[in-house]
Specification:
Helix content of chain B: 25-40%
Distance between the termini of chain B: 20 Å
Order of helices and strands of chain B: HEHEHEHEHEHEEHEHEHH
Strand order of the largest sheet of chain B: 7-6-5-8-9
Helix content of chain A: 25-40%
Largest sheet of chain A: 9 strands, mixed
CATH superfamily of the largest domain in chain B: Aspartate/ornithine carbamoyltransferase
CATH class of chain A: Alpha Beta
Shape of chain B: globular
Structural class of chain B: alpha/beta
Largest interface: A-B, 16 and 25 residues
Structural class of chain A: alpha/beta
Number of domains of chain A: 1
Largest sheet of chain B: 5 strands, parallel
Oligomer: heterodimer
Number of strands of chain A: 19
CATH superfamily of chain A: Metal-dependent hydrolases
CATH topology of chain A: TIM Barrel
Number of helices of chain B: 10
Chain lengths: ~425, ~300
């Protein structure tokens, strides 16, 4: 296997609190001391940022079930283009990833076809239906890193409590899509001024908040990790803040779109502003940003949800929820959070690396010698306009097309192999 | 005098006060036509209008059809049940197929808010919104405005109360935009579950008490209460709704004596509006229907004019 010396890099490694110029050696797929290399290929990073590979703990790959929208292969390429070296595949495929067999198939396909690491996530309930517990033990044996019913939410609180207890015994974190269904029924956008103005059915913030409150109770009583997916309201952020301050093992993620867009966007009737949870009000968005800034929200995840143009080019009411995000996440967050001065670059990188690693229980996710050579190189000065036609994803359902951004992923390295470089999958 | 530049009429939210007045003035001319013995004019001769109703409608469709006939347009009626939407064709494909038949205007009703905005952006032919979900019903609001202006002379400082299921009403929203732009004060009233506080952010007064809502009103616009709402937990029963928010003869005593009573129809007699009030001196409900024809002729004439 090829050896590399990445020299003249601004190394940012949040786990070790490093931000300094230096070199990184790569041999046998691992990070090694530059001095130990014999005849490496030398890559001059030119002072650009080199950081641990991003981890997206919330990705929909659509295989099996909707491979017109995305496949494991295409989704992994989109991930590589976005600087992600590991992605967690949500189980709401068709059929659902609720059995060891489904997980094995995913792993085997990923091994052959994916250019980044695809970490499987299994369902908590059979078929994601929220009625009976899935075979969490066999899922663990098949290699899942977490369990989730993402896209849906277990409404039966007794079942949920059992799931948390049972998952704990298998050391599996819970990734929960927090949505109480009666307060969301029929809703297509945030309930508030804009739903009232546009005459659309709203999804109340309380729908998310009720389940977050429930999950905080269970996390405390059972003392087990519950991660709140795509947190979207001010009240949710505040509940997570207080719970964490009390030492309860809960974490929360924010998506780039909830951090940058609001429900006002829906006035265009563009279905790329339709997702679940919906874009919320400006005050919710500001609270979410504060949550990211003060460390309440430790993870930025994309909820990459590919849909075909056909599926999305319909009346707003009839469009499926979800947008893609892998290839725009860094640029959008860097522009809106770092360039604007809300958080530092190192903090942003932490939300994309150590934050998600901690949720998954991955220890020592860093550029330390001996670790897998999973890293990303960023050009934080590059300004450009996002063009969806350049995406590696099979889908184009993004609200960020045409947006001016600053900051690009220029290289992605997985297990010491360059998988993405200057706009191309290698 | 302004020049009309829009190929579509999608809602009153987007229109300026000047444009609204221009439509009302044009409608006044067409109203005169409707009062003649020969009611037909050749304004849209040779043009084709498709009435595409993806949600059932009787009176709005009949009003549009008649307006089109009186403008000498060729007319095709399409219902959702009869259309290919049920066979899995997308809405956009359906309307593109309609357009490919060299149609000039599509008058459309749809249950999804913004459906007309969505297709209007993607079609060259004109689109007239005949109601999109709870979003807008511009021609209904325009005929309400026309009726108010005809009866009361103008809008500045006028107090207009819209009462009923505001949350689910496209008529309420279009009226709110039109009235606010023309300088009226708007109150929306009804049970708190159907008149959420968020309406205040639109610039109207929110009120949950009938007496308070009608007290200073120059115009009271009553909305139809949908029977199915009582099963979705917004209020306990039609009877309770009626007793708290229905207008009865006695309610008139709390109102200005010359206040107008309006209703977009169809009326639930003795539910939101007592029969004797609907038929009484303050009621202008049937005049609204007559004016609707003139307003729709004006709208079709103006948007068709942008086709040439």
């Amino acid at each position: 296997m090829k050896e590399y010396l990445f020299k003249n890099a601004r190394i940012i490694d949040p786990a070790r609190n490093i931000d300094e110029l230096g070199s990184i050696g790569v041999s046998e797929g691992k990070i090694v001391a530059p001095e130990s290399l014999e005849t490496p290929e030398i890559i001059d990073v030119g002072g650009k940022v080199l950081c641990p590979g991003f981890i997206d703990i919330h990705v929909h790959l659509r295989q099996p079930g909707n491979t017109t929208a995305e496949t494991i292969a295409s989704g992994s390429k989109a991930a590589a283009a976005g600087g992600f070296t590991s992605i967690v595949a949500m189980p709401n495929t068709n059929p659902a990833a609720d059995t060891a067999g489904a997980i094995e198939l995913l792993r085997r396909t990923a091994e052959k076809e994916a250019v980044v690491k695809v970490l499987p996530c299994g369902n908590m309930s059979k078929g994601g239906k929220g009625e009976e517990m899935a075979g969490i033990g066999s899922l663990k044996a098949a290699g899942v890193v977490a369990v989730s019913d993402d896209g849906k939410c277990i409404q039966d609180h007794a079942l949920m409590r059992h799931v948390v207890e049972y998952a704990k015994s298998f050391d599996l974190p819970i990734l929960d899509h927090c949505e109480e269904v009666t307060l969301a029924a029929g809703g297509v956008m945030n309930e508030g001024k804009w739903s009232v103005l546009l005459g659309m059915n709203g999804i109340a913030g309380a729908s998310e908040e009720l389940i977050i409150a429930r999950n905080i109770l269970f996390a405390r009583q059972i003392n087990w990790k519950i991660h709140m997916q795509h947190v979207s309201t001010a009240e949710s952020v505040e509940m997570i803040r207080r719970a964490r301050a009390a030492g309860i093992p809960v974490t929360g993620e924010a998506t780039p779109h909830h951090l940058t867009l609001t429900d006002e966007c829906v006035k265009t009737f563009d279905t790329n502003y339709k997702m679940n949870p919906p874009l919320r009000s400006e005050s919710d968005r500001q609270a979410l940003i504060r949550g990211v800034a003060d460390g309440t929200i430790t993870v930025i995840a994309t909820d990459h949800a590919p849909h075909t143009a056909t599926a999305k080019l319909v009346e707003f009411d009839h469009a499926p929820f979800g947008i893609i995000g892998l290839e725009t996440a860094f640029a959008v967050c860097h522009t809106e959070l770092v360039v604007s001065g809300v958080i530092t670059l190192s903090q942003l990188i932490a939300k994309l690396t150590t934050g998600p690693a901690e949720v998954l229980g991955m220890k020592n996710y860093s550029l330390a010698c001996g670790n897998p050579a999973d890293f990303t190189i960023l050009d934080t000065d590059l300004e450009y306009v996002i063009n969806k036609n350049n995406f590696k994803s099979k889908s184009r359902n993004t609200p960020f097309d045409g947006r001016k951004v600053k900051g690009a992923v220029t290289m992605t390295v997985v297990d010491g192999r360059i998988v993405f470089r200057n706009g191309e999958i290698i | 005098m302004i020049q009309w530049k829009r190929k579509d009429l999608l809602g009153l939210y987007d229109l300026s006060a000047e444009e609204i007045i221009f439509i009302l003035d044009t409608a006044a001319e067409f109203k005169k036509v409707s009062e003649r013995r020969v009611k037909k004019v050749p304004a849209l001769r040779g043009m084709t209008v498709v009435n595409f109703f993806v949600e059932p409608s009787t009176r709005t469709r009949v009003s549009f059809e008649l307006a089109e006939q009186r403008l000498s347009a060729d007319i095709v009626n399409m219902q959702a049940q009869a259309s290919s939407l049920l066979k899995g064709e997308t809405l956009l494909d359906t309307v593109k197929n309609i357009e490919a038949l060299q149609v000039d205007l599509v008058v459309m009703r749809h249950s999804a808010p913004g459906a007309q905005n969505f297709i209007a952006d993607r079609l060259k032919c004109g689109v007239v919104n005949a109601g999109d979900g709870a979003h807008e019903h511009p021609t209904q609001a325009l005929l309400d405005l026309f009726t108010i202006r005809e009866k009361l002379g103008g809008f500045k400082g006028l107090n207009v109360s819209i009462i009923g299921d505001i949350l689910h009403s496209r008529v309420a929203r279009s009226n709110i935009w039109g009235l606010l732009k023309l300088g009226a004060n708007v109150t929306v009233a009804g049970p708190s579950t159907l008149v959420p506080r968020e309406f205040e952010e639109l610039g109207v007064r929110v009120c949950h008490n009938l007496k308070d809502a009608v007290k200073d009103a120059d115009v009271v616009n009553m909305l139809r209460i949908q029977h199915e709402r009582q099963n979705s937990g917004f209020f306990p029963s039609i009877g309770e709704y009626s007793s708290w928010f229905g207008i009865k003869s006695a309610t008139l005593q709390d109102m200005k004596p010359e206040a107008l009573i309006m209703h977009p129809g169809p009326i639930n007699r003795d539910v939101e509006l007592a029969g004797e009030v609907a038929d009484g001196e303050n009621s202008v409900i049937l005049e609204q229907v007559t004016n609707g024809l003139a307003v729709r002729m004006a709208v079709l004439f103006l948007v068709a004019g942008c086709r040439k």
